[in-house]
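4.2 Preliminary Data

To establish feasibility before requesting continued support, the project team ran the inverse folding procedure on a target of 189 residues. The structure was first converted into the token representation described in Section 3, and no sequence information of any kind was made available to the design step. The complete token record follows.
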């Protein structure tokens, strides 16, 4: 069975977005990118909620024109992977996704994800997409949580965890980054 890996940035106090729904406080660099790419390299499918999908579809297909593209190993590596990977977007409103190799899931999301996990292939990675993640958490469909904890407290905002979860830390995958962020890998206990 394929695993569903969840990759997300959170603040030290557990928010994925601030009170204005912004993520400008997130720090991403090549070292964090390398840690995330280790997870993504085991996957052939990216899973998104609609909001995150639209943000990604606007950025990644044309990332080579981004001013920092040549200098960023992470941008180059992720672009190579994501632009050819199978992409799945969970949405009620998007009908014709423009990004190549994209499939739409409407309706019974939980059973669709269960079926997806049973299909042959490499693992699945869900990037961002907090509302979708919360739904999948409530049905125990996330196998691994790869969280980058940023050294910032927001005091208010969008909380990632809205229900109790018992998780166990996988120490060998924990990583302290020079900017003070911490990469942690948890699995359901």
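Position-by-position output of the design step:
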């Amino acid at each position: 069975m394929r695993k569903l890996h969840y990759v997300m940035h959170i603040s030290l106090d557990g928010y994925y977005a601030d009170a204005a729904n912004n993520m400008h406080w997130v720090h991403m660099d090549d070292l964090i990118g390398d840690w995330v790419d280790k997870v993504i390299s085991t996957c052939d499918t990216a899973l998104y909620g609609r909001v995150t999908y639209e943000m990604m579809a606007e950025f990644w297909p044309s990332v080579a024109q981004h001013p920092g593209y040549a200098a960023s190993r992470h941008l180059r590596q992720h672009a190579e992977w994501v632009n050819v990977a199978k992409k799945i977007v969970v949405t009620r409103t998007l009908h014709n996704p423009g990004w190549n190799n994209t499939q739409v899931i409407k309706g019974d999301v939980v059973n669709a994800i269960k079926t997806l996990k049973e299909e042959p292939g490499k693992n699945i990675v869900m990037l961002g997409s907090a509302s979708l993640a919360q739904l999948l958490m409530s049905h125990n469909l996330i196998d691994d949580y790869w969280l980058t904890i940023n050294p910032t407290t927001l005091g208010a905002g969008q909380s990632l965890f809205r229900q109790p979860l018992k998780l166990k830390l996988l120490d060998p995958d924990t990583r302290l980054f020079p900017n003070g962020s911490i990469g942690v890998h948890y699995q359901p206990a």
